[in-house]
Structure formats: structure tokens, C-alpha cells
């Protein structure tokens, strides 16, 4: 009998029983007031009159009226650059202990996002909240004695000017509680290896020494690691190496496009739990098995706002127009795409994180990530969000019984007319032709999206599909950003990036 596991499970069940449906709106009001009070004497707080906002009858409304929207570049150029000059109390009291490096999904240059000690606590608290939610998933007692493979970026953080720098997954892993370290794999020594391929090689070599019960990480990199372990041990599926694997906590991107190829690596179904950990904070996690939607963490140092995702409100570079309307959590509606804004204990204010979300349950504050503001293909009025693209690819997988876990698309002029060119990744031998896939993909999008159908009858003249091995996508990320961690493939490419990608494909085919 798993005695220790029974004790842990019992403790989690008790903790879970005390987690009632949060008063999300009230939580958010308290969080906003707390953020403003703590930052009122910073340079940012004085400039935008946080004290006056706190004295207003409607704090949320006054906050909206006085503080503009910011994306990373605006925050960096107007405020955060002062931190790098050694100044304190800029957008949050004191100086941040860490900077999260993120190339995001659009550029080569790393963003340097402040991560304060309060944010480390916030991320840890959200992680504990998710662990307590396991009481809702009815896991067996022995599951809680198994080890957890957390596949993120290197924990070998770089010291610079009195702070440490690295990707958020590496920062988080380097701050795991002491009581959890015995469960954490691949362990401190392997996790510090900077080179992704070398780190995965060590994981594969040591895999059979571990009793892994859960996986955590971005789907594309997790899938690549699992394939390496399977190949190294010359087995058919990952359960031949880790027979007690039962849970995968996904994060960073929608899991649905990877589901078919991911499950093909298993011998039996596993429980998939979605999380939303961004470089700017741990924002949401799945709290119950009846849905794959995630509940916003509304009481943990992050204040959320929501701008309706309409083309008229978005600038060509993906930033928000300052006159775009905004809603609080009390005003949102179900099944409407919103651009997500956050204000946090790391000193981000009305900050465009770049993701779009939709509420699946307003009362529970449960959401789905639907795409990125920059991954919105509307060159000729097609109005394709990543969510719609993902669904169309899933339909292709089901229609032809194939695995297509990765893709990127661009609007390209061919002989003077616009076409959507899809580069789709797969490692399968596929009998269906690229032309047949293009025809089916086009039909799926027409049937599901009125705007796309109208565009196809006018300025959008055709669809082309190019099938590529998955290695191309992995190596592109390695060449232009960095393998592993929070790195994600850009789903929509502009003209310049598309030309770079096609040249990269030619050189690496």
C-alpha cells in the first residue's frame, strides 16, 4: 500500500475541499487595489497618479482612464530601461531579482521581463493551487509517490548587474520548494545543462532510473523529448520506460493540435491538464476534469483586463490602439475573443501579453487560449485566428487519419495574387497528396468561417500546402531562438519572416 502517497493524497483532498468557487470579481478588485497601493510611490505610480486613482469612487474605471495600454516595447522604452541603468522604484518597489528572457514567437532579440520576488511567490502559489486541484481528478494514492519530469529551459541562470537572467521555466525550476526536490526530474545537475540536445540526451540515458508519474512542459518540446527516450531505449512507446506515467500538464500553447501525435507515443491514455504559465506570470490552470478550460488565478498578484479582439482595435504590429474599449472581469461575455491585459506584482501595467482568450464559463472565470494578436491572418480580410487554424488542422487529422502537430502559414503573392501558403509538419508516411490536403483545408475553413469564405471568393485566390519533416520546425526554433523551454513556433509569418523560413527550408531539406 502506498502509505506516503495516501497521506499526500489525503492532505491534497483536504486542501481541495477548502477551495470553493472563488469570488473572482471581488478577488480582482482587491488585487487591483493592492497593486496600486504597493506601487503608488514608484516613478510609474507617481506619474500616473496612483494615489488619486485609489481615492476614486470607481478604482477600476479611474485606472482605465489614467493609465494607457503598454506592450513590451513601450514598457521597455519608456520605463524598464531605467532599471538597467541601476535606478530603483521604477514600476515596482526596489529592483527585480530576476529577468525572464523571452524571444516570444516573433523575433530574434530576447525580451528581458522583470521578475520580482513577489512574482516568484505568485508563481509558486499558483503551482500549489494546481496541485490541490488534483483532488478533483481522482488520482490513485500511489501516483503521489511518483516523480515529475519538468521539461523547461536551463536552470543555469546567468548573473548580470546584481540579478539573475534566464527563461521563466528555468527561473521557476530553480526556485522549487525544498520538499519537492526529491520528486523533481531531471534533477538539478541535468537541468543546468544549457544545450537542449545535450540535456535531452542525458534525460534519455537516465530515463529508466526514474519512476515518472507526470510530465510538465510545452507540447512540441515534450513530444520531441519523449521520442528521443523511446528511440534510445528501442521501445514502442513511453510506457515501456515509464509504466506509471498518468498525467501531463501542458502549457504555453493549445494542446489540441498535438493531441493525436502525442497520444501515439503512449500505450494507454493519460490525463492532460492545461496550464497558462507565461514569462509574465502564472495566469491560469485547469481545476476540474469535466473541461479542458483553465480558471484564471484571480487572487494572486495579477489583475486582468480584456479588450474585444477586433481588427479595428489592433495596430499592424499587433499592439493595441489606445482608444480600444476594455472590459473588467465583471463585464466579459462567454465565447467572445478578447486580447488579454495584465497588471502584476512584477510592475507590468495594463500590459499586452500578446495572447487572445475566450471565456467558456464566466462565473468560474474559465478560459481557453484562442491565439495571438500577431498571429491573426487578415491580409485580404480572411480574419483567421490561431484557434480557427488549429481546428482546421485537427479536422484534417481526423479526415485522413494522420498526425500534423505543427504548422505555420503566410499570405503570399504568387503571380500577383494572394495565396495562403501552409507549411505543415509531420513525421508520418502520408499517402494523401499536398494538393488534396490543401483542398480539404480550404473547404474546412470556408465551412467554419464566413469571413474566410468571402475572402476566397474575392482577393484570396488559393491555398497551397507544403509538408515538411518536424525536424525543420525544431531546427528553425534552434537557429532563430533557442530549443526547449517557453519557445513556441510562430503560427503566422509576415512576408520577410516567410522568405527567411522558405530559404531555411531549402538549406535544411
From TrEMBL:
Residue ranges of coiled coil: 431-458
Record keywords, A-Z: Coiled coil
Domain GH3 middle span(s) in chain numbering: 297-362
Pfam family, one: GH3
All residue ranges annotated as the GH3 C-terminal domain in the record: 389-495
PANTHER family for this protein: GH3 DOMAIN-CONTAINING PROTEIN
Protein name: GH3 auxin-responsive promoter
Lineage: Bacteria, Pseudomonadati, Bacteroidota, Flavobacteriia, Flavobacteriales
Amino acid at each position: 500500500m502506498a502509505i506516503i502517497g495516501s497521506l499526500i493524497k489525503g492532505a491534497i483532498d483536504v486542501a481541495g475541499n477548502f477551495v470553493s468557487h472563488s469570488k473572482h470579481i471581488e478577488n480582482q478588485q482587491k488585487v487591483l487595489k493592492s497593486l496600486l497601493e504597493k506601487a503608488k510611490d514608484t516613478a510609474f505610480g507617481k506619474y500616473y497618479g496612483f494615489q488619486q486613482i485609489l481615492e476614486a469612487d470607481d478604482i477600476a474605471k479611474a485606472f482605465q482612464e489614467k493609465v494607457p495600454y503598454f506592450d513590451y516595447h513601450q514598457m521597455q522604452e519608456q520605463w524598464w530601461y531605467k532599471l538597467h541603468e541601476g535606478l530603483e522604484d521604477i514600476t515596482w518597489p526596489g529592483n527585480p531579482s530576476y529577468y525572464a528572457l523571452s524571444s516570444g514567437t516573433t523575433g530574434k532579440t530576447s525580451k528581458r521581463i522583470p521578475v520580482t520576488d513577489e512574482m516568484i511567490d505568485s508563481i509558486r502559489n499558483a503551482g500549489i493551487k494546481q496541485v490541490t486541484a488534483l483532488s478533483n481528478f481522482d488520482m490513485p494514492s500511489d501516483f503521489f509517490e511518483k516523480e515529475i519530469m519538468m521539461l523547461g529551459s536551463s536552470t543555469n541562470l546567468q548573473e548580470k548587474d546584481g540579478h539573475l537572467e534566464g527563461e521563466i521555466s528555468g527561473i521557476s525550476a530553480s526556485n522549487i520548494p525544498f520538499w519537492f526536490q526529491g520528486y523533481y526530474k531531471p534533477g538539478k545537475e541535468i537541468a543546468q545543462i544549457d544545450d537542449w540536445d545535450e540535456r535531452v540526451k542525458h534525460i534519455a540515458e537516465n530515463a529508466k532510473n526514474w519512476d515518472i508519474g507526470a510530465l510538465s512542459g510545452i507540447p512540441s518540446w515534450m513530444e520531441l523529448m519523449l521520442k528521443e527516450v523511446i528511440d534510445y531505449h528501442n521501445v514502442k512507446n513511453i510506457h515501456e520506460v515509464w509504466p506509471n506515467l498518468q498525467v501531463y500538464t501542458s502549457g504555453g500553447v493549445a494542446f489540441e493540435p498535438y493531441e493525436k501525435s502525442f497520444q501515439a507515443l503512449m500505450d494507454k491514455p493519460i490525463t492532460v491538464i492545461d496550464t497558462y504559465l507565461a514569462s509574465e506570470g502564472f495566469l491560469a490552470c485547469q481545476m476540474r476534469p469535466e473541461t479542458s478550460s483553465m480558471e484564471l488565478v484571480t487572487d494572486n498578484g495579477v489583475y486582468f483586463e480584456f479588450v474585444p479582439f477586433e481588427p479595428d482595435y489592433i495596430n499592424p504590429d499587433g499592439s493595441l490602439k489606445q482608444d480600444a474599449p476594455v472590459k473588467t472581469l465583471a463585464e466579459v461575455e462567454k465565447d467572445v475573443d478578447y486580447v488579454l491585459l495584465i497588471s502584476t506584482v512584477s510592475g507590468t501595467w495594463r500590459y499586452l501579453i500578446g495572447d487572445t482568450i475566450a471565456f467558456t464559463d464566466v462565473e468560474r472565470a474559465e478560459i481557453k487560449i484562442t491565439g495571438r494578436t500577431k498571429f491573426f491572418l487578415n491580409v485580404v480580410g480572411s480574419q483567421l485566428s490561431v484557434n480557427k487554424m488549429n481546428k482546421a488542422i485537427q479536422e484534417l487529422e481526423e479526415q485522413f487519419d494522420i498526425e500534423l502537430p505543427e504548422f505555420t502559414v503566410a499570405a503570399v503573392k504568387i503571380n500577383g495574387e494572394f495565396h495562403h501558403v501552409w507549411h505543415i509538419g509531420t513525421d508520418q508516411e502520408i499517402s494523401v497528396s499536398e494538393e488534396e490536403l490543401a483542398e480539404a483545408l480550404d473547404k474546412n475553413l470556408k465551412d467554419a468561417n464566413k469571413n474566410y469564405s468571402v475572402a476566397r471568393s474575392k482577393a484570396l485566390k488559393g491555398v497551397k500546402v507544403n509538408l515538411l519533416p518536424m525536424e525543420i520546425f525544431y531546427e528553425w526554433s534552434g537557429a532563430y531562438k533557442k530549443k526547449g523551454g517557453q519557445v513556441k513556433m510562430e503560427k503566422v509569418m509576415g512576408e520577410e519572416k516567410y522568405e527567411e523560413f522558405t530559404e531555411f527550408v531549402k538549406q535544411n531539406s
